Amino acid sequence: MSMLQTFTVLLRRELTLAMRRRGDVLTVLFFFVIVASLFPLGVGPDTQLLRLMGGGVVWVSALLAAMLSLGRLFASDHADGTLEQLILTPTPPVVWITGKILAHWLVSGVPLILVAPVLGIQFGLSNEALGVLMLSLLLGTPVLSLIGAIGAALTLGLRGGGVLVSVLVLPLYIPVLIFGAGAVDGAMSGLGAEAHLSLLGGILILAFMLTPWAVAAALRISME
Amino acid sequence: MSGFNWYKYASPATFYDLAGRMIPWFYAAAALLCAAGLYIGFFLAPTDFQQSEAYRIIFIHVPASWMSMFIYVVMAVWAAIGLAFNTRLSFMMASALAPTGAMLTFVALWTGALWGRPTWGAWWVWDARLTSELILFFLYIGFMALQAAIDDPRRADRAGALIALVGVVNVPIIYFSVRWWNTLHQGASVSVTKAPSMASIMLLGMLVMAFAVWMYAIAAALSRARSIILERERNSQWVAQLLEGKA
Fold this sequence. Notes:
The structure holds 2 protein chains of 2 kinds. By secondary structure, chain A is mostly helical.
């Protein structure tokens, strides 16, 4: 099989598996909505305050939701031996790892982007800011899946893996959070979101080029 | 230099002995430089026009934050050497450096809070450099937590090395964050290209203190590496002989 074929076969497999377990996908989505809804309950219903916080709150919730969904990325394939078989295939690991990460983003990142405007409206964001929020999530959530894959691969099969992955991965998510929430702030305050979005795009390109190799190395370390 | 065999010192047994002889010298250098640096800082350096005596915490704060970033880079270099050449000692050095680095990051944050209170009127502000230093602290914690969670030393070494290399991407962000976000924190006071904006005696005190912290970090890392070696090689013959000789 050519590399492209392997990539598409694996992508289709991952998506089929995700569709067979729709509950998992929906749980992450509802977690995202619930976390974002907790903030107004915590800080009070002041419209002005919520409008200022909105972009950041949606972004923090997206970070947490992305982090929670990382367990799905390699754990079940590790448990049933699929991962070992994948490593044994002649295809370079980077190819199928990129496929798995893309599938993970399609299943856990894209739903967040689609739901985010509803949350944004609850926080009173302007129409322009809603668009920027979606755009920033579109650029930022793939980075979350890419960087998170490194943490997921390194903590494979460890006790307390879930908490450990958050300690490893959340600090690395911070630049994405800063530029993502900064873009929404820029749109709300009229300063413009272009600079933040450009930086997010730059981070995405960098992460896309580097992380699949890091994930391949991490899997090799964890599977020895 | 051509006949010198560097690999000899990559052997834990040789290194254990060499480090044991080097550690007292580094501790002595650290103590002397620290005494000199504190003397310059407290007695020779003039009182600051704007911040009066409060600024003197700079002689601890700045060296600690410099070294906290530098140690992370050194740690990543050891990690890279370990992954590239498969030398066990490099991984041990990386894990030996992490607690010292984390401690200095904490010192930098703590003294920063003590300095911020009289000068800005707040213990903590969410400024880029403070936040980056906090992230650096989290990175150290993540590195140590990952290594602590893995029982197999070989996997722990390599997994830690990889996360150190991934995290090192963050260190330049810390350095350049001052330019990226323009906030309350003052810009870098020491610059390579511009003349320093502080009295040269203050700069001298800071540099001497930075060297003191450096020497201390080397001594602490070497003694921690010695403990790691003993722990890992406890079943080997030379450790048994060493312990017999002591008993």
